[in-house]
Specification:
The complex is a heterodimer of chains A (111) and B (808).
Chain A lengths: L3 E6 L7 E7 L2 E7 L5 E5 L13 E3 L2 E3 L6 E3 L15 E2 L1 E4 L2 E5 L10
Antiparallel strand pairs in A: 1-10, 2-3, 3-4, 4-8, 5-6, 6-7, 9-10
Chain B lengths: L2 E6 L3 H12 L4 E7 L11 H6 L12 H6 L3 E4 L5 E3 L4 E4 L2 E4 L2 E4 L3 E3 L12 E3 L3 H10 L5 E5 L3 H12 L3 E5 L12 H13 L3 E3 L4 E5 L6 E4 L4 E3 L2 E4 L3 E3 L2 H5 L8 E3 L10 E3 L4 E3 L7 H15 L12 E3 L7 E5 L7 E8 L4 E8 L2 E8 L5 H10 L14 H4 L8 H4 L6 E3 L4 E2 H9 L5 H8 L9 H12 L19 H10 L5 H7 L11 H12 L13 H5 L2 E2 L5 E3 L10 H13 L4 E4 L5 E6 L4 H10 L12 E6 L2 H4 L7 H12 L8 E6 L13 E6 L2 E6 L2 E2 L3 E2 L2 E6 L2 H18 L6 H8 L1 H9 L1 H18 L3 H6 L9 E2 H6 L1
Parallel strand pairs in B: 1-2, 1-7, 2-3, 7-19, 9-16, 10-11, 10-16, 11-12, 18-20, 32-33, 33-34
Antiparallel strand pairs in B: 4-5, 5-6, 8-17, 13-14, 14-15, 21-22, 22-25, 23-24, 24-25, 26-27, 28-29, 29-31, 30-31, 34-35, 35-38, 36-37
Classes of the chains: A mainly beta (111), B alpha/beta (808).
The complex binds siroheme, flavin-adenine dinucleotide, iron/sulfur cluster (SF4) and FE2/S2 (inorganic) cluster.
The site of flavin-adenine dinucleotide has 36 residues of chain B, from helix 1, strand 2, helix 2, helix 5 and helix 8.
Chain lengths: 111, 808
């Protein structure tokens, strides 16, 4: 079973945008889509380390701000001809609050 | 032995014939005469040149190098005045030229209606580059133009001049436009669309006289109406140019009579193109002429070939007007119509059946199925089984769901795609199979879409079918994979349909993805800002990181901060504030930029609001070093200090920067103001440059000094600073309203033509209106984004810090 930690209100994240959570395992980007789905991905592009949280969010994808690789928020996989993936973390919304995988609190990440 | 071949007329028909001959390795010494002072160009494309969508250089078919490498003796600007058949020579101003074989390809001459005033200066026809240039010169904003003739050519002339800002009236003798190709209903829809673009249409109008003293002033109709005119274009028809043949006593009917081999009544003389008559028929479209070219090339090389005319279909080359007609659509006994109308969408389709066969089709507003119908007409297929649903086209006939490519997918291999060059679907597929995977390659190998270009979309659809995801369109590709519309179409539709939000654009223009992509969203956001400054609200989430965060992201995820330094001038207080900020926020590098200001590089995102508010406190605002917007105005010291300065270039630069800053533009905009022609501010390689001179200010535009390097082109000379400000703001607004996203000024000007831009700016009323619209937009958008965001520092820091909580 996944344990969650409350990080913020859903409305603190802009629609079609993201905010960053600092964790002992590195920065995590929490995305919110136009229809209020949330996703949590490692905030580091496998290409050259670009902050995915600063990318443009479209549908359930994000385009990296540095060299425009596109990632599927559902899977963390790079799309098209690019090859790579980012780690995903469990995240959900309850009563307007965003809850993130609590294992990220641990010094040594579970993933 | 090498044959001496003389060709009279370097037009589209003879040009194609020469290509075939040289491709086949024909051993001939060609002498090519042309009355026009140039070689073969794509005459069909004069209309895009007239409207400003293309330049003459882009429509040249054979350039000097082409003729030279084939050893053609070119006599351009040298009309042939006589053919001496007995001695087998032609006569021109340089004397006599002997021939073994002679080809007459003199095309046709526009018909001039014999009314008083027809010879006044300012009256032109529409046939060649001279006519086109005359219309361009006379059709700036405020000019009045009258076109006599509402057929294909007349309407293309009218639309072209209207696109350049002239107010245009079309006078047409018949009851509806293009009566030879359209029935009254389609003619009416066409008239309504043209009237919406501001073109006045006067049907059933007979011209009585062209009025004017030293040049044209007006046109008088039989019914007494008078239309003022600075230019009159007569486009009432053409007749074959047969004078040489008549004088030489060749057999001539309405055109020069030729047999199936394209041979005239003299076995050594051949003819092709619009000047000929074959089997009592004349020709006015290029498709059959290209067939003649193939036949004549074979004949001259001693091969068997015979010309048989094919049916032709018509399209009007006016951007945004979609019409198609083919076959016979006159009403008659035994003929039946199937009609479909959708008034809301302005769609009209009519099919004409005789017995079990389709014999004609007229379509307006939605012509996607045109090729499919045309194919049925030509093949003479029995359509009785399809009758019920025929009008809905192939998508329905095949039972398949509506799919934009269904129409093309349903075409048989022998269906014609390119009417001009007679290229069928099968030939395009074969070319693709043998490796032609780009539009250019298909064009080069099959000539499909190489003439009038109106089938480019169809060719691309065939390619998309054959290549699937491997196909990358290159002609005028759609904005991105989310839509089939081009940037130009989207810009136009946003205005004409009054679309005022990104969801509205995506809904009404049928976006194929949810929420667009990183390529179309910033473009749409820009278009909406530029077109609806008062109604639309900027969508931050549709901006690239730099514009969203008002700072340039660095490769390690930090940012750079560049405050404005108006005209490159600073003072000790500003420098002190910059120095303090650099120390306070541990800025790793402080650098003087190429734009006369100072860059603080390597600032952490969460520090941005604080550093901005410190700089704000010293009176500095964002330099927009990240923006598709005004960047810098580079200046030199000018009269204030320099012994050569002619005007206050520093002061003017500062005033310009204060006028323009904060405005969003399609791509970045940089200015330079130099105090004299020594040009120390490098003004002549900027997007907009001002060079001061004793008599005032030389304003030039469209320079580049990035990935491309290009000198600016002169726009206008003005006498006062006020005029400089008005001209530059108006020009910037013109760019904001018309260019496609990410095109710098030099790219945009190359597309629309500097002449068009200048005409917009020179017209005082138009300039003032542009200036007013610019200022209206500035009233909303000239705000310092730093001040706005410095107030909410929490938004710029991580939303939560689990490293701290873990430590607790
Ligand atoms: C800071 C500066 C270099 C410097 O240290 O001097 C600079 C830095 C960058 N330039 Fe530049 N350009 C700078 C002057 C220029 C100039 C010279 C000038 O302005 O007089 C040019 C040539 C003129 C021109 O604009 O074309 C120039 C042509 C470019 C281009 C090529 C544009 C083009 O259309 O060809 C790019 C790439 C782009 O925009 O797509 C570019 C892009 C960039 C970017 C934004 C690259 C990026 O996307 O990250 C660099 C950001 C660095 C940063 O983090 O701050 N920079 N860049 C200069 C800032 C001027 C300012 O004060 O705002
Ligand atoms: C504005 C415009 C738009 C058009 N749009 C279309 C279209 O969309 N689709 C289509 O199918 N067709 C279109 N046409 C028609 C098409 O351009 C003509 O059918 C085609 O150019 C005719 O080719 P040609 O070689 O017979 O004559 P031309 O191309 O006219 O060439 C004849 C040449 O012979 C020269 N010449 C004449 N007399 C002499 C002499 N005595 N000595 C030396 N040289 C001489 C002329 O100067 C001319 O350069 C358009 C025409 C115009 C003007
Ligand atoms: S030239 Fe411009 S874009 Fe290239 S590295 Fe230097 S600053 Fe960056
Ligand atoms: S760092 Fe993400 S695409 Fe290059």
């Amino acid at each position: 079973m996944t344990l969650y930690v409350d990080i913020a209100a859903l409305d603190d994240i802009p629609r079609q945008g993201a905010r960053v959570v600092r964790t002992p395992a590195g920065c995590v980007a929490v995305f919110r889509t136009a229809d209020d789905q949330v996703f949590a991905l490692e905030d580091r592009c496998p290409h050259k380390g670009g902050p995915l949280s600063e990318g443009i969010v479209h549908g359930t994808s994000v385009t990296c701000p540095l060299h425009a690789w596109v990632f599927d928020l559902n899977t963390g996989q790079a799309q098209g001809t690019d090859d790579g993936a980012v780690r995903r973390f469990a995240v959900r919304v309850a009563a307007g609050r965003v809850l993130l995988d609590a294992s990220l609190l641990a010094r040594r990440s579970a993933a | 032995m090498t044959q001496r071949l003389v060709v009279i007329g370097a037009g589209m028909a003879s040009g194609r014939m020469l290509e075939h001959m040289f491709d086949a390795g024909g051993d001939v010494a060609v002498t090519l005469f042309n009355a026009e002072p140039r070689g073969n160009y794509n005459r069909l494309m004069l209309s895009p040149v007239l409207s400003g969508e293309k330049t003459y250089d882009q429509i040249v078919t054979h350039d000097a190098g082409w003729y030279e490498s084939r050893g053609v003796d070119c006599r351009f600007g040298e009309p042939v005045v006589k053919i001496d058949r007995d001695r087998k020579v032609v006569v021109s101003k340089s004397g006599e030229t002997p021939y073994d074989a002679l080809v007459i390809a003199t095309g046709s001459a526009p018909f001039i209606i014999p009314v008083p005033g027809k010879d006044l200066p300012g009256v032109c026809t529409y046939r060649d580059l001279e006519d086109t240039n005359a219309m361009i010169a006379a059709s700036g904003p405020g000019a009045n133009a009258v076109v006599i003739g509402g057929g294909l050519l007349g309407l293309e002339a009218a639309a072209g001049m209207a696109a350049r800002g002239a107010s245009v009236t079309v006078i047409h003798l018949m009851g509806h436009l293009m009566e030879r190709q359209l029935d009254p209903a389609a003619g009416y829809l066409l008239q309504r669309d043209l009237e919406r673009r501001g073109i006045r249409i006067h049907c059933k109008g007979a011209t009585k006289a062209i009025l004017g003293k030293d040049r044209v002033e007006a046109v008088l109709l039989e019914d007494g109406t008078v239309y003022p005119a600075d230019l009159v274009c007569m486009a009432v028809g053409i007749r074959p140019e047969v004078r040489l043949a008549n004088d030489a006593h060749l057999e001539v009917g309405r055109g020069i009579t030729v047999d199936d081999r394209m041979c005239t009544s003299d076995p050594a003389i051949f003819a092709l193109g619009e000047c000929v008559e074959h089997d009592k028929q004349l020709f006015g479209l290029v498709a059959p002429l290209y067939d003649q070219a193939r036949v004549l090339a074979a004949t001259l090389l001693g091969q068997e070939a015979a010309f048989a005319p094919v049916q032709t279909a018509t399209k009007l080359k006016v951007t945004g007007v979609d019409l198609f007609s083919a076959g016979d659509f006159a009403e008659g006994p035994g003929r039946e119509d199937i009609v479909f109308r959708d008034p809301g969408r302005g769609v009209y389709k009519r099919l004409i059946l005789e017995g079990d066969r389709l014999i004609g089709a007229v379509m307006y507003g939605d012509t996607a199925d045109g090729a499919w119908f045309f194919d049925h007409i030509k093949a003479g297929r029995d359509v009785s089984d399809l009758r019920e649903t025929l009008i809905f086209g192939p998508a329905f006939a095949g039972g398949a769901s509506a799919n934009p490519r269904a129409a093309v997918a349903a075409l048989p291999p022998e269906a014609e795609i390119c009417g001009c060059n007679g290229v069928c679907k099968g030939r395009i597929m074969t070319a693709i199979d043998s490796g032609a995977v780009t539009l250019d390659a298909v064009r080069a190998t099959t000539k499909a879409s190489a003439s009038c270009g109106s089938c480019t979309g169809l060719v691309e659809q065939v390619m998309a079918l054959a290549l699937g995801d491997g196909f990358v369109a290159n002609a005028n590709p759609p904005m991105c994979k989310c839509t089939d519309h081009t940037h130009e179409d989207v810009r136009r539709l946003i205005k004409s349909m009054g679309l005022k939000s990104i969801p509205a654009v995506m809904q009404d223009l049928g976006w194929k993805t949810v929420g667009g992509c990183a390529s179309c969203r910033p473009a749409l956001n820009y278009y909406l800002i530029a077109d609806w400054p008062m109604e639309y609200r900027d969508d931050r989430q549709s901006r690239f990181v730099n514009e969203r965060n008002h700072a340039n992201i660095q490769k390690d995820g930090t940012y750079s901060v560049v405050p404005r330094m108006w005209g490159g001038v600073t003072n000790p207080a500003e420098l002190r504030a910059i120095a303090d900020a650099a120390e306070k926020y541990n800025v790793p590098m402080v650098k003087v930029t190429g734009g006369q200001r100072i860059d603080l590089l390597g600032v952490r995102k969460q520090d941005l609001p604080a550093i901005w508010s410190d700089l704000n406190a010293a009176g500095m605002v964002s330099g927009h070093a990240y923006a598709k917007g005004l960047r810098t105005v580079k200046t030199c010291v000018g009269t204030e200090f320099c012994r050569f300065g002619t005007q206050d270039s520093t002061g003017l630069g500062i005033r310009l920067e204060k006028l323009l800053w904060g405005s969003w533009t399609p791509a970045k905009v940089k200015l330079g103001v130099s105090g004299c022609p020594r040009n120390c501010a490098e003004a002549t390689c900027k997007d907009i440059g001002v060079v001061c001179v004793d008599s005032g200010y030389e304003i030039s535009v469209a320079g580049a000094a990035g990935m491309e390097v290009k000198e600016t082109e002169f726009l206008i000379h003005v006498a006062t600073e006020e005029e400089v400000m008005e001209v530059i703001a108006a020009f910037t607004q013109l760019y904001r309203e018309n260019a496609r996203y990410l095109h710098r000024i030099y790219k945009w000007v190359a597309k629309v033509g500097l002449d068009w831009c200048r005409a917009q700016i020179e017209d005082p009323g138009n300039r003032r209106a542009l200036y007013a619209r610019f200022q209206q937009s500035q009233a909303v958008y000239q705000v310092d984004p730093w001040a706005e965001h410095a107030a909410t520092p929490a938004d710029w820091a991580p939303i939560a810090d689990l490293t701290l909580r873990a430590a607790e």
